[in-house]
Amino acid sequence: MIVERKIRLVTDQNVMPDKPAQVEGFPMRKWSVSIFVLDEAGEEHTADCFQKVVYNLHPSFENPTQTFPKPPFTCENEGWGEFEMVIDCYTTEKSKQSIPHDLNFQSNHYVSEHTVSFKNPSQALQQILRETGPLPNDEDRAKRKGAAGAAGPKKASQKYDYEKIADGLGRLEEDDLLRVIQIINDNRTEGMFIKSDVDAGEFSIDLYSMPETLTKLLWDHLNKKGLIS
Asked: Domain holding 13: CATH number?
C-alpha cells in the first residue's frame, strides 16, 4: 500500500539590522523553515508522520547537518547567502523522504508544497495518516468490518474493537512491539494481509484479516499493558 500526502515547507526570513554584514552588500538575516502536513482541504496539521527531520545545509555552516526530533521541525539559522538544501524526513530510523528546498530572500514569508509517499506504513503510522485523509484500503476495510458485523454475534469483530487495538499497538514501546510482531508471526494464517520490511524497520498488518484466536491474543496482551480503554 502506498499513501501520498502533501507537505508544506514554511520559510520566514528577515534582515538583522543590528548585526554587521560579513560580506559587503549582503546583510545578515535570520531565517527559519518549518514543516507541516496538509489535509484534503489544504489545512495545515502537525507533521507527526515523521520521527525526525534532518536539514542538510550549505557546507559553509559551522554545523551543516542539523537534526530535529519534534514537529514542526523548525530549523532556524543566521546567514547572508541564498542556497538550496536537502531536507530528509524520516518515517522510521532507516526510511526517509528527501526534499529539495530553495532558501531565498525574495520574500520575508513564503511556502512550497511537495508530495511525499509512504510505502506500506505501519499500523501506527496509518492511524496518524488518517488524521489528514483516508487511506487507499479504507473502503475495503470498512466493507470487511461491515460484513463481519453482519455475520453474527460470534464473530471476532463483535467481541473486539479494532480501533482500540490499533491505538494500543501505536503506543507500545519498542520491546513490546517486537513481542507483538512475534505473536503475530507465530499465529499467522493464510489469508492474513501482512507487509514486513526488516531493512526499513517497517511492519504492517490488516487487523481485520486476523483470525479470532490472534485477535484475542493481541487484545489480552494490550489489555494487560493497560492500553485498552
From this structure: 2.60.40.1970
Q: Which residues contact 12 (CB under 8 A, 6 or more apart)?
A: 31, 32, 108, 109
CA–CA separation, 73 and 7 (whole Å)? 12
Residue 145: what residue type?
K
Residue 24 makes CB contacts below 8 A (sequence gap 6+) with none
Instruction: Quick: pLDDT tens for 66-101.
Output: 999 999 999 999 999 999 999 999 988 888 999 999
Backbone angles phi, psi at 183, to 5 degrees: -60, -45
Q: Of all residues in the chain, what percent carry a pLDDT higher than 90?
A: 48
Q: Which domain holds residue 14?
A: 2-119
DSSP state of 26: B
- Please report the pLDDT score of residue 114 as a whole number: 95
34 and 113 both lie in a single domain: yes
- Of 62, 90, 119, which closes a domain? 119
Mean pLDDT (whole number) for 159-168? 83
Q: Which helix (H) or strand (E) holds 207?
A: none
Nearest one of 83, 92, 103, 82 to 12, comparing CA atoms = 103
Read off the C-alpha cell for 132: 489528514
142 and 65 in a common domain: no
Distances in Å between the Cα of 183 and the Cα atoms of 50, 89, 179 are: 27, 31, 6
Q: What predicted TM-score, i.e. pTM, was given to this entire model?
A: 0.65
CA-CA distances (angstroms) from residue 206 to 81, 120, 124, 192? 49, 11, 12, 7
